[in-house]
Specification:
Elements: E1 2-7, H1 11-20, E2 28-31, H2 38-46, E3 49-53, H3 57-69, E4 81-85, H4 92-95, E5 102-108, H5 123-136, E6 137-147, H6 154-166, E7 173-180, E8 189-195
Parallel strand pairs: 1-7, 2-3, 2-5, 3-4, 5-6
Antiparallel strand pairs: 6-8, 7-8
The structure holds S-adenosylmethionine.
Residues 33-39, 53-56, 59, 88-90, 108, 110-112, 119, 121, 125 line the site of S-adenosylmethionine.
Amino acid sequence: MLSTRFTLHSLVTEAHKTIQGYLPNNGISIDATMGNGHDTLFLARHSAKVYAFDIQAVALTNTRQRLQKNGFNFNPQTHPEIHLIHKGHEHMAHAIPGNEKIDAIMFNLGYLPHGENPIITQKHSTLTALKQSLQLLNRQGVLSILAYPGHAGGKAELDAIINWSQQLDDAAYAITLIHSIKETTESPRLFIISPIN
Ligand SMILES: C[S@@+](CC[C@H](N)C(=O)[O-])C[C@H]1O[C@@H](n2cnc3c(N)ncnc32)[C@H](O)[C@@H]1O
């Protein structure tokens, strides 16, 4: 089932609003692209357990600082349980305990804002991680993907995601593609994917 809609909000706000509706009190979430930690902080506020991935050490440093500034102390005795993982999201299936099902998985693709080096997400590892995400996702869960065609490599990554999403069983997944009302060819696109029960 594929649908499209337009929004006046930022697509990050749309992703957060949508995900919040899917997270139960004891929810488990994954931030597949930690970056500066804005999404990890959002997930920490609404989950009992968060796994966050990034390949850049600076992303883990920035995210840890953002969480600590906002009162998250990484004490294993207190909730939420937060795991900052210095690995690519294409390794998430190995990094998450085998019996855990995930309620919300977020991808915010592209490059680290204000980062010094242009490390971007790559379509092959992104697709590997997206396939693993669907295996890890709870039947009542949600996957969000924010893709940016405006930077070098971003259009190829967006096209690969569109192609992958079109091959999903449309009786098994509800897919919504959300556009900004002020969209240009370079504007980000948000995919929301959830299993149909
Ligand atoms: C747009 S930023 C993420 C923004 C972040 N979610 C936030 O709230 O600040 C994209 C991030 O993806 C990371 N990245 C690139 N390739 C990756 C991979 N294979 N696995 C995990 N993260 C990756 C980059 O290092 C960068 O920090």
